[in-house]
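Let us work through a complete example step by step.
Step 1: write down the sequence.
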Amino acid sequence: MRKRRILSLLTALALCLSLLPVTALADENVAAIGSEMYTSLDNAIADVTNNTPTTITLLKSFSTNSFEIPSNKNITLDLNGCELDLGSGRYGVELNTDSTFTLTDSGSGGVLKFCTTKSKGAAIYSSGSSPTINIQGGTVEMTSTANTSFYAVRSSGLINISGGTVKACREDMYAKPIAIGAQGTSLNITGGTIIAQGLPKSDGSYAGGIGIEFKTASSCTASIAKDVIFNCTMYDINAENQITVTGGKFTNVKLSSSSASGSTLKNCTINGTLTLGSNECTFTDVQFGEDAVLDSTRYILSEGRVLPSDAPEITFATSDADMGLIKIDNYNFSDPSSSGGISDPMESRTWYVEKNSTATVTATAVPADENHKFVGWYGTADGSGTPHSTDSQVTYTAPEGGV
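Step 2: predict the structure and record it as tokens.
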């Protein structure tokens, strides 16, 4: 009887002891792959043994060391509303050859944080060949302790961003935060927010604060949706190699590096300063905001259109600067990139015509009121010389090459 009682007690004790570690481990679990729980992110990654797409879901906020995505692995990290602090070093997440890393957030407010202590460090970085980085949700938050360039995302492979926030910031006037370092041949941004913030120096300029830096690759093609938000203190785009950018709405863009000559801008909007220097650039359906500025020795910006800086001119003018409305009834240019239109009131009107093209303009002068009298059309803005016509309506055809 006594032996039975002891046996029963031992069985109950064993049962209790078997339950205790499970409860303790449940509190220590930080990640899961499906129903499998892990006490460290490294253990979860090590359990991915093939290239089948695998999602690792965070279970709570925690701090850990930086980690690598092994070669030929396809891993999605679901922040699940948690904060993952990867500490400090050169790289937070490093991709190896033929690996894919996707960041998403099935919860709300998920953040991947990293602080680099090295030059050109990055929160997410690819070092191998043919890597792919996908940002679909959550926030990549990057800072630095060094006054050198650093990146939130930097890759020599394909970068796809469809949501979330990519952020590189440091409150130091000499810091050089860059949100995205595109060093490969392809970049696709269909959604999300790009932030790169630094502090101004004493002269008001910035050492950094670049949304996208294109560098290293001989050429890169970027597709950017117009609803992507840029919040950058220096440039939304800075290219140090030849690029083709389709879409996007930008403030300041810099393509003045000699290696960026021959770049192409398509179907995008520039609201700040486009810096080209002496570089050539192809423009297709590019819109310029009211306050846009073109910094170039090769081109001029005329009423929202980019024209060669040496484009010939046709000018209609009156000797009375206060005459009022000059109405353009009709204008026909052989080159569609030339400009024309109506101004009210205006002193003179100038049309730029491409070389070796012709232009015909019909204009009507309408005095501002009964106190003003139309006196004629002149070929100079100050009304000097012999007028082309003294009729209130005039048709003028520019010779080959303009006037």
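Step 3: interpret the result. The chain has two helices and 39 strands.
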